[in-house]
Amino acid sequence: MGQGLSCAVDPEHGLFSAVQYGEMETVKAILERDSSLLHKRTAYDRQSLLHIASANGQIEILSMLLDQSLNPDLLNRKRLTPLMLAAMHGKISCVKKLLDAGANILKFDDHNGRTCLHYAAYYGHSHCLQAILSSAQSSPVAASWGYARFVNIRDGRGATPLHLAARQKRPDCVHILLDNGALVCASTGGYGYPGSTPLHLAARGGSLDCVRELLSWGADRLQRDSSGRIPYAVAIKHMHGACAALLNPSSAEPLVWPSPLKFISELNQDAKVLLERALVEANREREKIILKGTAFSPSPSHSDSGTCDDISEAGDNELCSICFEQVCTIEIQECGHQMCAHCTLSLCCHNKPNPSLASIIPPVCPFCRGPIAHLAVAKFKNSDDPDHTVNDISSSKLRKSRSSRNLSEGSSSFKGLPSAVGTLGKMNGRGSGGITADNGLMDKP
């Protein structure tokens, strides 16, 4: 990109060098002698003092410059703003400071037509990405332009931030974007990868973590690019065998995060963490079966470390009445019935959501058949502290008591259950309506 900002030192003042290296006293002394230098620019790239401070993470100097009423949206030669450079270089304190100063998150550069959101996603700075998205929710963008539209904003050649994150192997950014409404099946149209979805691009790059994340948010394994290739064919072409195994249409479908359900979108953070962990564990079990006997060993899931087979130490809370394997960690409101996170997730995920449908039929409580209003973290029934929840149990006590479970296959854990929950295990079926657009993507920003 040529944005390293190894700026040429002004032969007379050395102002740019002082800003770059955080020499606050030198900067103040120079500006006191000649305040007009506040608007000084580098000769070629037209970098302002704000650009240099932002790219180098010099938060104190940046704050001082902004206090001088400098415009936070100054443009350099490529029409990059200080906020774009801060996001590009992962300078989170500068990103937050510029956002607080009113920097415009909807500015597009002149090189690729990208915003600060694109740059944060491309370079994998998830903390900067989250800060920009949080600002967008409370800024005029949400009211005028629309928050969902901003999350799926396309650059000059049609790439969304999700496309860039998937192509560059940034699973943390992929997760944040999907959790904030990024379209998992949006396709590109140029950049050498016409019609590619984020799943195609993750397969091209061989990012197993990105493939897992996209599949767990409903990415369609059968959606084709402009050349008629499904993601599986792209992974095979680029010799990414493990990715190809997961993307093979003949392999079992993964569980998909049930984001269309209202009570899922309203989860508090603790309950969300429990369910997300259950989703990862279930899909890793599926992955082990798919990769078993192949040359590719599944990477160990977080749940594999410290797995505890003895769940009797997890307080006096009852075992889940559906699987009889795990402690009840999730409570259904308003009825108060409790289940483990795995069974709760299976209840919500027995059908793969289809984005082409306006709404889906929400599941009901498997015990009383009442509607599910909210899900919350279950509380211990025999705890001295009435507010003591299962979230306080050591994570090893909440993990699976048996090493072989395959929720994604759908039958082994739920066969023989009462009819009220007999359908929990039927999780097969595909259908993630493709959302296409005439857009594209390139390798470099």
From TrEMBL:
Biased composition (Low complexity): 404-413
Enzyme Commission number(s) from the entry: 2.3.2.27
Protein's UniProt name: RING-type E3 ubiquitin transferase
Lineage, opening ranks: Eukaryota, Viridiplantae, Streptophyta, Embryophyta, Tracheophyta
Matches recorded under PROSITE patterns: ANK_REP_REGION, ANK_REPEAT, ZF_RING_2
Family matches, as SMART domains: ANK
SUPFAM superfamilies, A to Z: Ankyrin repeat, RING/U-box
Enzyme class: transferase
